[in-house]
Amino acid sequence: MTDRLVPLISQQTIAETVKRLARDIDRDYGDRPPVVVGVLKGSFIFLADLIRAMQTPIKRVELIKLSSYGSGTVSSGTVSMQLDVPAEAIAGQDVILVEDIVDTGLSVAKAFQVLGSYSPQSLKLCTLLDKPDRRKVPVTIDYCGITIPDRFIVGYGIDFGEQYRQLPDIYTLERPIEA
Ligand code: PRP
Prior knowledge:
Elements: E1 2-9, H1 11-29, E2 35-40, H2 44-53, E3 60-67, E4 80-83, H3 87-90, E5 94-102, H4 106-116, E6 122-130, E7 143-147, E8 153-154, E9 170-177
Parallel strand pairs: 2-3, 2-5, 5-6, 6-7
Antiparallel strand pairs: 1-9, 3-4, 8-9
Helix pairs in contact: 1-2
The chain binds 1-O-pyrophosphono-5-O-phosphono-alpha-D-ribofuranose.
1-O-pyrophosphono-5-O-phosphono-alpha-D-ribofuranose binds next to β2, β3, β5 and α4.
């Protein structure tokens, strides 16, 4: 079986989007250094590009790990927190959660529930991609990159069965072709 990858978003468009998001964050935070929290694994490439495009100094970078998909293309509906952040890193801080994609919204809801319990000064969401068609819980996106259709996507950090994260562009993953 061979996965068929169809180009959806080019690395040039991704780069332009990252710059726009960084500018918007710079505009809002100015000299108020945020704590940036990336959601592993999918956001690691976006996070690295985003923080290097930002001019606002960052107070600290933290990483959390959530997992919802398992190995399939459909969200399991249950989000588990596999790596948490120290509460002291969040308390009283201006926090930006960085996601690669908001799909059902369950991952962001879980992250906001946990981070919110650590009493941040403020808590905002930045996502590269938004797939609103499959939303199960309402999510307010403060910094939104690109809205995409209800297709399974890979590349730029996003995987299918742990493959394809390294691709610089984003593709839709089409139904496997029988070999
Ligand atoms: C993906 C993606 C988001 C989340 C979005 O992570 O990276 O974190 O799902 O989906 P949702 O809005 O339906 O919750 P995944 O659970 O696949 O883990 P990974 O990032 O480690 O690949």
